[in-house]
Amino acid sequence: MELRPYQREAVDAVYRHLRERNDNPCVVLPTAAGKTPCLATVCRDAVNLWNGRVVILAHVKELLEQALDKLRAIAPELPVGIYSASLKRRELNYAVTIGGIQSIYQKACDLGPVDLIIIDEAHMIPPDGEGRYRQFISEAKAVNPHVRVIGLTATPFRMNSGMICGPENILNQICFEIGVRELIVQGYLCPLRTKAGMARADMSNLHVRGGEFIAGEVEDVMDTDDLVQAACAEIIEHTADRRSVLIFSAGVRHGQHVVEALRSRHGVECGFVEGNTPTRERDELLGRFKRGELKYLANVNVLTTGFDAPSIDCVAMLRPTMSPGLYYQMVGRGFRLHPDKADCLILDFGGNILRHGPVDDLRIKEPGKGDGEAPAKECPQCHAVVHAAYSNCPECGHEFPPPEKSRHEAQATSAGILSDQMMHSAYEVDDVSYHMHFKRSDPITAPTMRVDYHCGFATKFSEWVCFEHTGYARQKAEQWWRQRSNEPVPHRIEEAVHLAYSGALAPTLSITIGRKPGSRYDKVVGHILGAKPPRIDTDEGVAKYVATYSGIPEDEIPF
User: Fold this and answer.
1) In angstroms, rounded to a whole number, what is the distance separating the alpha carbons of residues 42 and 35?
2) What's the pLDDT at 17?
């Protein structure tokens, strides 16, 4: 199995992090982007190239089975054992052990020394305390103090405690990340469309406990006959040309109500699975759904992480959630490509898109801080959920009223289900200048190269290229350089600026600027470049270059 280019970059970023740092990396890949092939590749190399031993940890059997399948495809020669009660296997003494965390968390010492612990869906690691992941890792370190941990996830944050990576956490730094929108553009994920449901409940009186709406209150609000009947009618209307519809309900009673409404009012069969559904019945329903024999399938909190049905071309969220991770996982069921679908329709009856923003630019609430303002708005005419900055709906042309004046800036950062609905403007570039920059308040931080694009009289846009940083920032700098130059990628800012003024870079003909409401900064999101110049004869030297400290005010730096 050959890795996709971004998967190869992710694996290389992991190896670079393990070589250059002493802490633990995390890879962030969207749902359906293929984390498991990356995981399997790392296992193969660890065993075959470095004579190491690896443990893969996951929390649901579907992820364990996926890991086993990819290992068999990528490295069929590897000795692989599985330790999972749900799969009825308890195998330990292998080069690679795939373990369900609920079964294996007390077995680290029985495994013997391992070199790598790879955690799939790493956002499941608890933020503190003695959780099962922490217990396993602690005991594994007692056997081998040099064991390293690698995390893979699509959502590198928790609902209450923010980002999963930090100096004191098990995972310390994101070494590679790629977004949903970028993979849709590249053709690796399915395009998305979104509609807000007209049938909606009043959620203003819902209470929050532990960072999430109280489940019983949510079900009581969503499970009224009028609301269920109206929502089901909308689902039927919008999915006439859809082939595979996944419905998320607010509870068991609510889900059963939805199934009955679809059957009695619309004459369609809708399957239903929840935590207590017998295994045989659940497997039969999921099999029919994946084969296209069952168009509608409702569930309660079970078909999120690890559920793979590429044919899903509509996701209906009949429940609100305060969790950006759960919202992402629900929408993510429609990310996968399938030859019979052109896009995936997201029907949101719970206000989740307005609450959390687009899936490729989620608004993550920092603990202890307020919610801010809505990151998107709904068109009253066609019910599309669009960027808060639009004056006219891009779907139907409806003209929005001008926004009310406020003492505060809007904090909307994106639009609709994807943030590529941000406002874009193109500018021709007259000149480009390059400068070395240090953060004056933090002289220890590595310097960056500031690139200024001069576009007409008194119009300038800037971006920063981080050659002396590590991890993902360095990777992006390398990509930026290789798009423009035939010279080797520099390691020092002085060298980069020197080469830039020496004529080593392709000319920038125009740039595209992305504007997000509420942001203080315009962002350079695209470039049109001229041809790369030939290699420079470095023996001649260049008189143009003047090393300089730019003295840029710190509040102009958007990071």
Assistant:
1) 11
2) 95
